[in-house]
Write a structure and sequence with these properties.
The longest helix is centred in the C-terminal third of the chain and has 19 residues. This protein has 17 helices and 16 strands. Helix content is 34%, strand content 14%. The strands form 4 sheets. Strands 3, 4, 5, 6, 9, 10, 11, 12, 15 and 16 form a 10-stranded mixed beta sheet that branches. Strands 1-2 form a two-stranded antiparallel sheet.
């Protein structure tokens, strides 16, 4: 079988998107507003010291990750990953004590001429003794583009969990994995996939045209769809109920992969679980106020929590209504309408608790970087873009727009990378020596968003997939205090689905306490598991499981 790889490589016009702030050539946390926050996991990967070979003489002036990447590219064709290795484990007694198999391996994809193009690494889990015709299987993707699947793997879905991303967590936090009582494995087998350039996945040819083809919206979807098809075929799972789960840009991928599988590869998908996605980048482009409007309820949620209040969609109804009505109308009136500007400042201050003088400097529309500095400025702290309630020390408190490492994303890179490498070698017994790329900035920098003037979006694929398969069921989940991909943005996108596709039993939005990776909180992770179990039960016809737990 050959692998079809897309050829679109013309970059979309992102002139309306503020650039991310950088320090000494290294990408840092995302700044400049909602549009800039699109690629939520796109920082340059740094391999922790001791996890890679020392640099050859004469390369001391190069960055560690860059040296490793260049060295790996040079000899990649002769350095394949080891053959798949399967180990056997037991779930804790609290989860039933069932035995499960864990397989670390890779699938080599080829072009239409049969030449190898890329090697995609994966880790798969399956309960032993199950009927593959009825046992569900879920393929999981993280985002970026440029992020490995470690976030979902070790943060929420997998059988082992790493605590990260919460207040006070830092790079030196011990990378200790524990049993995950909220793993999805009791109700679905799992396959965690690292797209090309992330984790241990690599190109097999030093071919710039190939990179342009695969590192693109269309090429990425074709490659990942091909991987799913190959995995199902080679592992005897074509008859299994199939689901896709994705976070952030992975959530953008999921509807597109589902639609491609339906039409191009002859594979039906029963359920989609989409976590903290951007479903339509057009909502962030062209200088329109929808991006800042969508962020307002999330800021209001953070303010309510800081006051000790409980946050629900009902409690935020006033913020949501204002954001999508009077706020947009006043913003569109322009800065010369002083009465409109004053209304914005007054209402936003009331909803978010932000200082009126601060808001006045921005005409009531501050950028994301400035907000992160302002939220805890009096305490000398900066807030995370990924969770407004998680803060870190401001390295330059005198600079109200200074650069900083994000206290969620940057602080979690070292423990997650170390945990992933150690787990692969020690627990999965997979003898890989290739450097591990948790976050590969080269991927995001070179990503092609497609030809034409229209911004990338996944809603047309979601709409088409739902229309074609009346049994396809979708859950979109967000954290209340995520400033990178605020929940209201997905609500705006979903509101545009036709009434024939919006049965709440088929498509629903759920919002949980926390930020972009809300599952780092114990209660939200349990809520995520219960929600996913209901989805799996619905698509498999398991009425008993579908009724378990409260519906959000």
């Amino acid at each position: 079988m050959t692998d079809r790889i897309g050829s679109q490589s013309t970059s979309i016009d992102l002139s309306g998107v503020p650039a991310r702030r950088r320090r000494a050539g290294r990408a840092s946390a995302i700044a400049g507003g909602m549009q800039a926050a699109l690629i939520s996991l796109t920082l340059i990967s740094v391999v922790p010291q001791g996890l890679a070979q020392p640099a050859p003489a004469g390369q001391a002036g190069q960055g560690t990750a860059q040296r490793q990447r260049e060295n790996a590219d040079a000899g990649q064709e002769n350095e394949r990953l080891p053959a798949p290795v399967t180990t056997h484990h037991v779930l804790p007694a609290s989860l039933g004590g069932q035995r499960y198999a864990a397989t670390a391996g890779s699938i080599v994809l080829s072009d239409q001429a049969g030449r190898p193009t890329a090697e995609i690494a994966y880790v798969a889990y399956s309960l032993e003794g199950q009927d593959p015709t009825t046992r569900p299987i879920t393929f999981a993707f993280n985002g970026g583009p440029g992020a490995a699947s470690a976030y979902l793997h070790f943060g929420a879905l997998g059988p082992q969990r790493l605590a990260f991303g919460n207040q006070g967590d830092g790079p030196s936090k011990p990378p200790t994995l524990v049993d995950n009582s909220d793993t999805w494995l009791p109700f679905t087998d799992l396959v965690f996939i690292d797209p090309v350039g992330t984790g241990y996945s690599r190109f097999l040819r030093d071919d710039q045209d190939l990179r342009r083809q695969i590192w693109s919206v269309s090429g990425d979807i074709q490659v990942l769809s091909r991987f799913v098809t190959r995995y199902l075929t080679e592992n005897g799972r074509l008859r299994s109920p199939k689901l896709l789960a994705g976070e952030s840009y992975g959530g953008f991928r999921v509807p597109k992969i589902a639609h491609a599988l339906q039409g191009d590869y002859g594979v039906g998908v029963a359920g989609l679980y989409i976590i903290s996605p951007v479903l339509d980048f057009g909502l962030r482009s062209g200088g329109l106020p929808l991006g800042s409007a969508a962020r307002l309820p999330s800021l209001a949620a953070a303010a309510r929590v800081m006051r000790g209040e409980t946050v629900t969609r009902e409690a935020l109804a006033d913020a949501e209504h204002y954001a999508l009505s009077a706020y947009i109308a006043d913003v569109l009136s322009g800065p010369r309408d002083t009465a409109a500007v004053e209304r914005i400042i007054s209402k936003v201050a009331d909803l978010t608790g932000l200082d009126r003088a601060f808001l006045a400097r921005f005409g009531g529309q501050p950028d994301l970087n400035s907000i992160a500095h302002e939220l805890e400025r009096k305490e000398g702290q900066v807030a995370s873009y990924y969770d407004a309630l998680v803060t870190g020390i401001d390295p330059t408190p005198w600079d109200v727009s200074g650069d900083f490492d994000d206290p969620v994303l940057d602080a979690s890179r070292a423990p997650l990378t170390t945990a992933a490498v150690d787990y692969t070698r020690r627990v999965l017994d997979y003898p890989v020596t290739r450097p591990y790329e948790l976050l590969n900035g080269e991927v995001s920098r070179r990503w092609s968003w497609g030809a034409g003037r229209q911004a990338a979006e996944a809603m047309s694929d979601l709409r088409a997939a739902l229309a074609l398969d009346p049994k396809l069921t979708v859950v979109v989940a967000h954290g209340f205090t995520d400033l990178v991909t605020p929940y209201l943005e997905s609500q705006i996108a979903l509101n545009r689905l036709p009434a024939t596709l919006t049965d709440p039993d088929r498509v629903r939005l759920e919002v949980m306490p926390g930020g972009h990776m809300f599952y780092t909180r114990d209660g939200s992770r349990a809520q995520l598991k219960a929600s996913a179990e209901r989805l799996v039960a619905r698509v498999t016809g398991d009425a008993a499981r579908e009724g378990e737990g409260p519906r959000p």
